[in-house]
Design goal:
19 helices, mainly alpha
C-alpha cells in the first residue's frame, strides 16, 4: 500500500501542476472533444480485456497456457475493435456535429493495440503484489507524457496534445513491461483454459461494460444535447472531483483486491477488512470533499483561471456524489473476490438501468442541473446496492456499515454547515472566505477527533506509529 500510495500521490502532484498549466494553454472545447470520445474508448478497452484480467488475478494458480491464451485474445480483439472505431468515426463525428472528432478518434484508437500488449504483464505484477515496479513505471509515464503534452499545447497543437498524452500513457508502460518482464507468450491458444477463465471473466466483462457505460452516459448526453464547450466544463469538474474522491480509495482497492482473493474463504476476516477500509476511507475522504465543496470557487480560479468558473456548480454537485463513489469499490471488489461474478453482473445491470433512468429523467426535467442531480441519486443508489450484496454474501450487515460511517458523515456535514454559516455572516473576499471556511472546518473536525477519539482515529494513529517504527 505504501508503494501504491507513492504512485497515486506522485501522479496527483504531477497532474495538479500540469493541470494548472494546461488549463491556461487549452480551451474547454479541446477538453470537450476528448470527453465526447471517452465513452467509445473505454467501452472498446472493456471488450479487449473481456474480464479476463480479473479472472487471472482471482484464479489462485494461473498457468503459462492461461496467460498465453488471454494474450492472444486481447490482441485479436484489439484489431477487431480498432476496425470498428475506424469505420464508425465519421458517424460519431456527425452524431456530435463536430467533424474534427473523426480524425481524433482514428488516431486515438491506436491505444487499443498498445494496451493489448501489456495487460497480461500488468496482471502478473498485481498478482504477485509487486506494486513497486507498477508504481515506478506509472510515475515515469506520467512525468514523460505530461511533459510532452504541455510542450505540444504550448506550441498550439490544441486537442492533439491531449491525444498524444493518452497514447504515451499507454505506450511507455507497454514498452517497459515487454522488455523488463521476462514473460513471453507461447504459441498456444487453449479453448479449455479460455472456457475456464471465461466462466468467471465473462460476467466480470459484462459488469465492467455496464459500469463503464453507466459512468460515461452523462458525457454522451451532454455532448449530444449541448456542445463541446459545455462538455469541457463538465469534464474538468468531473476529473477534479474524481481526483479528490478516488485518490485514496484507488490506492487501497488496488492493493486489497488480490488480498481479498487470498482470504475469500474466511468471511469473518474479509468482513473485518472491509470494515477497516470503509471506516478509514470515510474518515479521510468525507471532510476532504466537504472542504472542496465549500471552497470550490477560489480553488478553480487558483488552479485553472477564471476561464473555468462555469465548472464550479458542476463540481460542487459532483462532490456530493463523490462521497458515495469513494466507498463503492470497497464493497464491489469484495464480491468479485469471492467469485460472485454472476451476482455482480445482475445487480450491476439493475444499478446501471436505474442510473440511466435517473440521469435521463433529470436531463428532461431540469436540463444540466437535473442531470447532475440524477448522478448524485445514482451514486448513492449504487452504494446501497453494493452494501446490500456484502451484507448478504459476506456477512458485514448493511446496517452495521451505515452505523460505522454515520459518525463521520454527521460530523462532516455539521462542520460544513457551520463553516458555510460563518462565511455567510461576513462579507469577505473570495480568497479570505475560503481560508476562513477551511480553518473553521478543520478546528471542528480535528477537535471532534481529539476529544471523542473515534475508533477509526485510534486505528490510523496505530498505523502511523507502526510505520514510523519501521
Amino acid at each position: 500500500m505504501v508503494w501504491t500510495a507513492l504512485q497515486r500521490y506522485s501522479i496527483m502532484i504531477i497532474q495538479f501542476i500540469s493541470g494548472i498549466i494546461l488549463a491556461r494553454l487549452l480551451t474547454p472545447h479541446d477538453y470537450g472533444c476528448i470527453g465526447m470520445l471517452t465513452i467509445f474508448m473505454v467501452l472498446a478497452e472493456s471488450f479487449i480485456d473481456g474480464g479476463f484480467g480479473s479472472a487471472l488475478i482471482q484464479k489462485k494458480r494461473p498457468t503459462q497456457v492461461d496467460y498465453s491464451t488471454i494474450f492472444f485474445w486481447n490482441l485479436g480483439m484489439s484489431v477487431l475493435l480498432y476496425a470498428v472505431l475506424y469505420f464508425s468515426a465519421p458517424a460519431i463525428a456527425r452524431f456530435y456535429n463536430t467533424p474534427l472528432l473523426r480524425d481524433v478518434l482514428r488516431v486515438q484508437g491506436i491505444i487499443l493495440f498498445i494496451s493489448a500488449f501489456n495487460i497480461v504483464q500488468r496482471n502478473q505484477l498485481q498478482k504477485k503484489l509487486n506494486f513497486k515496479v507498477l508504481s515506478m513505471v506509472t510515475i515515469l509515464t506520467s512525468i514523460t507524457s505530461l511533459t510532452v503534452t504541455i510542450l505540444m499545447a504550448y506550441l498550439g497543437y490544441g486537442v492533439w496534445s491531449l491525444v498524444a498524452q493518452h497514447i504515451l500513457t499507454a505506450l511507455i508502460p507497454a514498452l517497459f513491461f515487454w522488455f523488463h518482464i521476462k514473460w513471453r507468450p507461447q504459441l498456444v491458444f487453449s479453448w479449455q483454459s479460455f472456457r475456464e477463465l471465461f466462466s468467471f471473466g465473462f460476467y466480470m466483462f459484462l459488469t465492467n461494460l455496464l459500469n463503464q457505460f453507466g459512468h460515461q452516459i452523462q458525457g454522451l448526453l451532454i455532448g449530444r444535447f449541448y456542445n463541446a464547450t459545455t462538455m469541457g466544463f463538465y469534464s474538468k469538474a468531473n476529473a477534479t472531483e474524481r481526483l479528490a474522491s478516488q485518490s485514496i480509495s484507488r490506492v487501497m482497492t488496488q492493493v486489497t483486491y488480490p488480498l481479498y482473493a487470498e482470504v475469500q474463504d474466511d468471511k469473518e476476516r474479509l468482513s473485518n477488512m472491509i470494515k477497516r477500509i470503509t471506516m478509514t476511507l470515510s474518515y479521510i475522504t468525507f471532510p476532504f470533499l466537504f472542504i472542496l465543496l465549500l471552497c470550490a470557487k477560489p480553488i478553480f480560479v487558483i488552479l485553472y483561471s477564471e476561464r473555468w468558473l462555469d465548472s464550479v456548480p458542476y463540481f460542487q454537485v459532483l462532490c456530493i456524489a463523490g462521497l458515495a463513489y469513494s466507498l463503492q469499490s470497497v464493497n464491489y471488489q469484495s464480491i468479485s473476490a469471492i467469485g460472485r461474478s454472476q451476482t455482480l453482473f445482475v445487480w450491476t445491470f439493475v444499478k446501471r438501468i436505474m442510473g440511466i433512468v435517473f440521469v435521463v429523467a433529470g436531463l428532461l426535467i431540469a436540463g444540466m442541473k437535473g442531470l447532475l442531480v440524477g448522478m448524485v441519486i445514482n451514486a448513492w443508489f449504487s452504494y446501497a446496492v453494493n452494501i446490500g450484496m456484502v451484507s448478504k454474501y459476506i456477512g458485514y450487515r448493511w446496517w452495521n456499515q451505515l452505523k460505522d460511517i454515520m459518525p463521520v458523515m454527521i460530523v462532516s456535514m455539521v462542520a460544513a454547515l457551520v463553516s458555510y454559516g460563518v462565511g455567510m455572516l461576513f462579507n469577505f473576499s473570495m480568497y479570505v472566505d475560503g481560508v476562513i471556511k477551511v480553518s473553521v472546518y478543520a478546528i471542528l473536525y480535528v477537535g471532534w477527533s481529539y476529544f471523542f477519539k473515534p475508533e477509526v482515529g485510534n486505528y490510523l494513529r496505530t498505523i502511523l506509529i507502526n510505520l514510523k517504527k519501521k
